[in-house]
Amino acid sequence: MDRTKTCPPECGSGLGLTGAYHPPMCRQLLNALIALVLVITLPLAPAEAAMDYAKQVLIGADFADRDMQGVTFNLTNLREANLSGSNLQGASLYGAKLQDADFSNSNLRDATLDSAVLEGTDLTNAVLEDAFAFNTRFINVKISGADFTNVPVRGDVLKSLCAAAEGTNPVTGRETRDTLGC
Length: 182
Fold this sequence. Notes:
mainly alpha
């Protein structure tokens, strides 16, 4: 008695897989083909949130209006970079050089700015709520409308920020002076 059969159409004979077959092997072959097709055709998710730009020189880089949640810019030179309108929530800018960088209208909630150098940096209307900035250098920064709610800063820095504080943040509705505790 011959136990081999001809491969029926539903098992792949349309793919040139004719001849003797065994039903379990046919199912395994079809499952493997389906898995391969799915792997090839599924779109890849963007990995920008996991980007690491640490220790790079990105002078004048343009990151405007981008979703950069959780991105790492530790010890990165971002002098004159444009990050306006970007979502940098949870980003790490530890020790970054941010001279003359534009962070206007950016979301810096929960960001780490400790030991960063902000000199001439534009923080107009930025939301820094719950950011960590205790050892951050703020020199001649533009903070009109910025929200510093729950941002720890040194006393000497607070004094200079309060001298420049004005405006209301358009996102949170909070006055800059109030968020600094001036």
